[in-house]
Amino acid sequence: MNKPTVLIIDDEPQIRKLLEINLSSKGYAVRHAESGKEGLLLASSHFPDAILLDLGLPDMSGHEVLRQLREWYSRAIVILSVQNGEADIVNALENGANDYLTKPFRVGELLARLRSAIRHSDASTVVQTVETGQLEIDLMARVVRRAGEIQKLTSTEYNLLALLARNEGRVLTHQFLLKEVWGISFQSETQYLRVFIAQIRKKIEDDPNRPVHIITESGVGYRFQ
Amino acid sequence: MAAVKLHPFWQFLIGTASIALLAMVCYALGDSMDQWAVALILLAAVSVLAVLFDIIPVLAAALLSALLLNIFFIDPIPDYKIRDTESALLFFIYLFIALVNAVLTNRLRKQEKKIRDREEKEKTIKLYNTLLNSLSHELKTPIATIIGSIDTLKEIDPEIGSQQRMELLAEMEIAGNRLNKQVENLMNMSRLETGTLKLKRDWCDVNELIFLVIQKLPATDTIRIRFEPDESLPLVKLDGGLIETAVYALVHNATRYTPKQTPIEIVTTYNKENNLLIDVLDSGLGIPETEISHVFEKFYRLPNSGTGGSGLGLSIAKGFVEAHGGTVCVANQAQGGALFRIVLPVEISRLHV
Question: pLDDT at position B106, please?
Fold first, then answer.
């Protein structure tokens, strides 16, 4: 199998260097672009497996690059953003980005995000069971086990957990979760989400107050791992 | 006295109306009011207006009062002509005093404003200097650590063992995190100062928020925290990110300024007045009573409070809480240690966690 290719679109040479060294050492082929225009060009000529896109570009907004990419590009896009940019991040995720990282980010985190974004953008993989730590979710039989013991979940709880688990490693926004589990008219009813996430944590986490499976991404959403 | 900031049109209207009203009352009282008494009453009214309003509306009110005095009170009434010397004297002295009064009061107020402005400017300059001092220290220290460590690793690498290498890398990591935190603080401060802070209120599980704060602390501090989540606490509507930052600042502050290994307790309550209370109680030495009122000031740090820290955390916490219409305060506990309390007026959800 060929090396997976990653296109980095970022105007900061230091960040590009850092990403390139890390990604090539992990077996990725790396391309980079310094501007949005160049990024769009390289994306269409190389059709990379994943794109790391900085939201703050000199020539055009990262959101615009994302929008234009998503007109034809269906593979993984991970956004790089600055801190305190939750609104920006949510916006990008709603517009088709697969995941995000805030600068400064840890390299381990970057690699994990990229890996799961590439995995999920490949539509051919069908997840049947998700196993992580003591937790096992059988998506075919709709059964959740913790340390081998079956956990009783209500149907809404299960639907929410299954949606998160199917997207293991990826952040899902509040709006997305509400729309998928409760329906489009519930998109702003985040109180349901809070209540159900708390209930699910009581059933699947060893310590619901220090969750290791359903992680809160403040101001953005939840991530299952 | 501070000037009442009203549009000049209203100043005109209120000024002339109050003079007219006063004159009418005096006129209605009839013979019991001597022309000299009326003059004094009107003069008093003009003086009050001069303190409150701008010069032009006050002059207008003064002229009107002189006119009314002449027409309705100076004998014979009602007539604008002045016949005897005493009445003429009264009219001109009145007019003179009223105008001088208006002008002098106005000049005094302008002088006061100038002094206030100068004090304000001096305060800003002082703040700016503190900022520069604090900033250059707080930013340059970690930068010096990073650059120094890099030089060491680059140049004398073969001579230092892998143990020291790891130590230098760990120092660089700490310095990097510290820089990041400082920049975050500065960005938050500027969001507050420039008024660009926008609240994103959303339903929030307070227990979860507190645990997120605890998780962000270094492991050596996490073990000091005592927190019993209150399961009966309702979901509340607030900007989770901002309140998390505020609570973090209080807890972080407590970990810094109390002896290692002493417990720090976090208590959350929802009270009858629809307020969410978040208390951070430490078992340190408390805060000297003379300093307690300065704790939330920008760049303020307790005397002899050791190295590190920019004095921004608590003032940002205060800003974020106040943006929610809440308050944050500090007091010393009877049994020792400080108590920091955030009070937030909140909307609660009917749904229960």
Answer: 84
User: Where does chain B hold its CATH 3.30.565.10 domain(s)?
Assistant: 202-348
Q: Distances in Å between the alpha carbon of A27 and those of A21, A113, B110, B293? A: 10, 15, 73, 58
Nearest to A83 among B176, B184, B207 (CB): B184
DSSP state at residue B264:
E
Look-up of token digits 């100043």: B11
Test the B interface: residue of A106, A194, A199 with most B CBs within 10 Å: A194
Of the pLDDT bands very low, low, confident and very high (cuts 50, 70, 90), residue B69 is confident
- Which residues, including other chains, have CB under 8 Å from residue A133's CB and lie 6 or more apart? A212, A213
A153-175 confidence digits (pLDDT tens): 999 999 999 999 999 999 999 99
**Token pair recorded at residue B65:** 């009062």
Are the C-beta atoms of residues B38 and B66 closer than 8 Å to each other?
A: no
Beta bridge partners of B265: B226, B281
Q: Which domain holds residue A13?
A: 5-121
DSSP for B174-217 reads HHHHHHHHHHHHHHHHHHHHTT------EEE-HHHHHHHHHHHS
From CA B178, how far away is CA B173, in angstroms rounded?
9
Q: Residue A151 belongs to what H/E stretch?
A: strand A149-151
The single residue listed with the structure tokens 């740090």 is: B301
Tell me the one-letter amino acid at B13. L
CB contact under 8 A, A218 and B202: no
Superfamily of domain B202-348: Histidine kinase-like ATPase, C-terminal domain (3.30.565.10)
Percentage of the residues of chain B whose pLDDT score is greater than 70:
92
Whether A218 and B207 lie within 8 Å, measured CB to CB: no
